[in-house]
Amino acid sequence: xxxxxxxxxxxxxxxxxxxxxxxxxxxxxxxxxxxxxxxxxxxxxxxxxxxxxxxxxxxxxxxxxxxxxxxxxxxxxxxxxxxxxxxxxxxxxxxxxxxxxxxxxxxxxxxxxxxxxxxxxxxxxxxxxxxxxxxxxxxxxxxxxxxxxxxxxxxxxxxxxxxxxxxxxxxxxxxxxxxxxxxxxxxxxxxxxxxxxxxxxxxxxxxxxxxxxxxxxxxxxxxxxxxxxxxxxxxxxxxxxxxxxxxxxxxxxxxxxxxxxxxxxxxxxxxxxxxxxxxxxxxxxxxxxxxxxxxxxxxxxxxxxxxxxxxx
Length: 312
Prior knowledge:
The protein is an alpha+beta fold. 28% of the residues lie in helices and 23% in strands. Strands 4, 5, 6, 7, 8, 9 and 10 form a 7-stranded antiparallel sheet that branches. Strands 2-1-3 form a 3-stranded antiparallel sheet, with no helix packed on it. The longest helix has 21 residues, at 161-181. It is globular, with a radius of gyration of 23 Å. Residues 1-60 are annotated as: Disordered.
């Protein structure tokens, strides 16, 4: 994709706490473009018409809203000329110590319109959210979503397995570092868990960028394939929560989930954590790989049942 000159180049976007990413609000320099039009003169002064209070008193009454500012990625990786992002699921069972599972399945969400930098007004170009794209006149759910297995195979055919492994390893780092960044701020309760929906953007250089992390992500299905993914995701989440106390606590895979962090990195091979940095360590993650969850669950629970029957 050739780099096109536009007012989006070098731009930052601002998102309020209550926003659902349904519009792009560019921040150029030190100015802010109001998402719902310019405020009235009274609102800019902090008071209403006829208000005779001092400006300091009026400022105290202005509701304060926090915004997240993000650099706009102007060179996204395109497939078929369209922008997309990835939805990936991470299950956190504990923050102290950090214990996190990565789900093998996920999906790429495509925009319904070919990408261009010429306009910031067309939300169907820049925003890949299903809530936005499904309002497009020619929206079709099958054309706007790929399962991660298909996406990974596509990248491997275009760039080779090594480049894809590097990309997905970089995403693993995003998942772990983001959780570690809030580890001390979140109350850790052994009776609680959280399923997060990560939104990742890939640029032309195959570099992943974290867009946002959604607590309690939407599980509404937009297609039969989407429905099957999310029902299996919920089922495997409950298997790990393990209210029946069937698991031993030593499992590194349960259904479609792989344990990627257990107070330290988890290796695909059995053994101690490799903290030497020698490069021989392979993290126990299989994002976008084959998810033979039914077979794995049968083997797992058959093995657990056999252990219970074995006399001490």
